Amino acid sequence: MRVLPGVMAASVALTVAIVLFVPYVARQYRRRGRLGVGHAALAFAFLVYVLALVAYVLVPMPPLVPDFCSYHGGQRPQLEALGSLRGLPGVHATGGLRAVVMDADFQQFAMNIALFVPLGMFLRHMFRRGVVATLAIGVATTLFVEFTQLTGNWFVYPCPYRLFDVDDLIANTVGTGVGVVLAPLLRLVPGQRAVPDPGAPRPVTAGRRLLGMLCDLLLMWLGGNLALLPVEWALRTAAPLADSGWMVLLPALTPWSLPALVVLLVLLATGGTPGQHVVMLRFHRVGRRRPGAGRLLVAWLVGLGGLGVLAAAALAGWAPGAPLALGLAALHVVALVLVPGGRGMTGLLSGLHTVDSRPARPAGRAETPEAHVTGPGGST
Questions:
Q1: Among the ranges given (116-120, 154-158, 238-242), the one the predictor scored with the smallest mean pLDDT
Q2: What are the residue boundaries of the structural domains of the chain, listed by start?
Q3: What does DSSP assign to residue 249?
Q4: Distance (Å, rounded) from C-alpha 91 to C-alpha 85?
Q5: pTM for the full model?
Q6: What sign results for the dihedral spanned by CA atoms 268, 272, 273, 274?
């Protein structure tokens, strides 16, 4: 049963990570100059850890029945320091070190230490907290956990169903301290280093362009599903309208066609898709300040616009729509690697280049947008 909180935490963390992925990438590019894979992995690990900590405190939650306290009301606080370990000398005398290690009370104490080791490591390494501040946060966190148990999840339950144990406070604080000592190990995770000057233009790599495409797809998917909610509500509440042909098509058109139209408007207004702006890219035509509307329209049609139309057709019941949409997406990925200069299919058919949107820094000689056009390979 104790596996369940961890599984729940991982599932919720994955959902939260998908929702927060685009703003996280945007923040990383503006603060650190790029998305470090190692930094992103540690951020996700911290998210999983926080949610797992919450889950292990709350899950499983027993049903609230009229005679709840007769079943769970016998939990009295354990206020004796190291009281849960007072039987270990006898265990050691009769069974040696192996018996101590196998003792349930010792294992519980050791698990409470291990539970807070990641907190000390994350606070010290990722959030740059001092030793005293890290230990103080660890103590405050374990106090909050113990009082949550003592108050029956802050009076949601009429009596506590888990034990308030001062030994947990001791073990958790020790675990936080161990985490402070082990925090330098997190420096060994590659892909955490920020660029020297995050505000300066950088070469446009294939990985960076792929990341922008992924951000576009996530924004379209999330935005389309949010827009679908009022449409489905209208169909359920307005029965006469639900019989019209257009209202029948709306659930198919909204999830992908509407976001694709928004992408087109952003593209025409700014010269880049929302996903490109997240990773600080835009389209550029060599020799001109801004690409023309016609070329931007071509870039949209062979890219996100075409994908949106095919996805909408698939939702409307056209069977080839789904495989064609997947094929178009795969073709863009392959073309990004194979087309000379890394321009991809969009750049090849529209005559546009992808450049860094950050203004060039005056250093020695002035840089032109062409100095940071699409190039194959490299890090994001």
A1: 238-242
A2: 1-60, 75-191, 206-372
A3: H
A4: 10
A5: 0.84
A6: negative
